Amino acid sequence: MRLPALKHLVESVRALGQSRKVIVLGSASLLASFPELGEMELLESTYDGDLLLEPINKEIAGYLVEAVGQGSLFRAEHGYHADILHPTIVESLPPGWEERLVAMEGFEDVFALDPYDLSAVKVVVGREKDLALVRGLLELGKITAEILRERLYAMPLGEKEMFRTGRNFSGLTAL
Fold it and tell me: Fewer Cβ close by (within 10 Å): the C or N end of the chain?
């Protein structure tokens, strides 16, 4: 996904959802900090914007899924879509994430997840595509292992999650 596509998606969702605030989560959130990544292979396979709207309710969420979601005419026409997130998603984010949100250029009420917070979530989840994204960010010098480690240590993880996350992080930093 490229930044103009993300902005178009956000504008469409804001118009339809009448939200006061939109937070971009997921890989597309990187475009707010590093717009150039949209031109690189790193985000080449990102065709969705994971969006958290405030306020949101089931009716509006359902309407937005139909209008701009994966199976929508919007997706068919533009090649990208919105994934409307449930507010409980924030429970999986590192503590203090709200204070580190990145303002999205051109909007007063649209923010994106900080690249380190996104990377920490990706390391915890540990899917190969997520780890490849974080590896790419490290290799490009967009994030550092030291700050990523700090974010990971701050996350309230269970024993199994801590072990898996440590293994994932070690694999990323053993370059």
Answer: C
Residues in the chain: 175
Q: What pLDDT, on a 0 to 100 scale, did the predictor assign at position 175?
A: 57
Contact between 165 and 126 under an 8 Å Cβ cutoff? The reply is: yes
CA 141 vs CA 16, 38, 115, 166: distances in Å: 37, 16, 12, 21
pTM of the full structure: 0.93
Q: Are 50 and 26 in contact, with CB atoms under 8 Å apart?
A: yes
Average pLDDT, the chain: 95
Q: Where are the domains of the chain?
A: 1-113, 114-175
**Alpha-carbon gap, residue 95 to 93, rounded angstroms:** 6
Q: What percent of the chain has pLDDT over 70?
A: 99
Dihedral angle of Cα 100, 104, 108, 114, to the nearest 10 degrees: -10
Q: Which residues neighbour 168 within 8 Å (Cβ) at sequence distance 6 or greater?
A: 123, 124, 126, 131
Instruction: Compute CA distances 74 → 1, 65, 160, 171, whole Å.
Output: 15, 10, 40, 39
